[in-house]
Amino acid sequence: MSAAAIEPGGTPRNDGPAPLVARIDRSWGSGPGTHGGYLAALGLAAMRARLVGELSEDRPVRALATHFLAPVADRPLALHAVVERVGRDAAVCSVRAAQGGALVLVGSATFGASRSGPDHNGSCAPTVPGPDDCPPLALPQALAEFARQLEIRPATAARPLAGGERAELVAWMRFRDDRPLDAEAATVLTDALPPALFATWTTPRPVPSAELTVHFGTALDDAPGGVRVLLEVGGEAGPDPPGRDRVDADAFAGELLGEADRERLDRALGGGVVDVLRRAAELVIDHFDFLHAEIISRRDL
After folding, report:
1. How far apart are CA 32 and CA 37, in angstroms?
2. pTM, to two decimals
3. Where are the domains of the chain?
4. Collapsed DSSP state (helix, strand, coil) of residue 213
5. Which of 205, 212, 200 has the alpha carbon at shortest distance from 237?
6. What is the Cα–Cα distance from 63 to 98, expressed in whole angstroms?
7. How far apart are CA 214 and CA 194, in angstroms?
8. How far is CA 163 from CA 19, 41, 195, 266, in A?
9. How many C-beta neighbours within 10 Å does residue 209 have?
């Protein structure tokens, strides 16, 4: 997910430089497409690379917003990143990703000083066993190919498709290759657990991501590699579009690495996955996962 995952390529556009190119690997597959958190991380890496190219310095990212417009296949993805504005305290970048000439993703990021990220938002982390006391869980490869690159250890009795009473999943997670826990890696993790409503269902159905927004904490600036991260995903169903009031509904003490909101579309709305995604801006969402996938604490191996 770092800048090493993308490379210069493509034809320069009339309104900007040549796009960067990411080689999408099927190992990051999710259902019929590619894992949304991975794509968001690639978009972030492209924006960071463009910013560094113009400023000759890196800045920590503080916020990332990604909108998924269509599934992405395992072939080259062109990423058009632009530095929109650079100020004394913050810089704003945008990215548009296309595959086969079709727009599949748009996003933006705010980069700022290290003091500007959230550290604590007033609540306490859930009391759960440590990762070594939690058995690992393997997600179905057919639905989540990307999960083979992660170690997932549920920290409560809740499991996907267990028919539980609460729409909530809590788990310790880490990358199996012990990569550094930078903002790109954290972005992947925020989208790694299934939708919270899976804890209440007994039969799976596709619920593709429509949007992922991540706010990064300052504790992430110095996070090492090989750490386990505790994530909590809380969700609900309702007749309204995803409520904006839940953004800071649950927050945690300790090392707050980041928090995210994830908006998903329920496959039960009808049509194929591509149709559902393309209708995202027009549909009233009947079921959604309001990801409270707040990266709430970390623990060294």
Report:
1. 15
2. 0.82
3. 3-300
4. strand
5. 200
6. 22
7. 17
8. 45, 32, 13, 17
9. 25
Mean pLDDT of 19-47: 93
Show the CA angle centred on residue 202, arms to residues 249 and 277, nearest 5°.
65
pLDDT tens across 45-84, in order? 999 999 999 998 899 999 999 999 999 999 999 999 999 9
Burial, 229: exposed, middle or buried (Cβ in 10 Å; 0-12, 13-18, 19+)?
buried
Q: What is the largest CA-CA distance in the chain?
A: 56
What burial letters (b/e) apply to 164-199, b meaning 16+ CB within 10 Å? beebbbbbbbbbeeebebbbbbbbbbbbbbbbbbbb
68 membership: H or E segment, kind and range:
strand 61-68
Angstrom distance (rounded) from CA 237 to CA 233: 14
User: Residue 234 CB: number of other CB atoms within 10 A?
Assistant: 20
- Domain 3-300 fold is Porin (2.40.160)
- The H or E element containing residue 186 is helix 183-190
Q: What are phi and psi of 92, to 5 degrees?
A: -120, 130
Q: Is 177 helix (H, G, I), strand (E, B) or coil?
A: coil
CA distances from 182 to 30, 243, 262 (A): 22, 28, 20
Tell me which H or E stretch contains 159.
none
**C-alpha to C-alpha distance for 241 and 19, rounded to whole angstroms:** 33
Q: What angle do CA 277, 213, 274 make, to 5 degrees?
A: 10
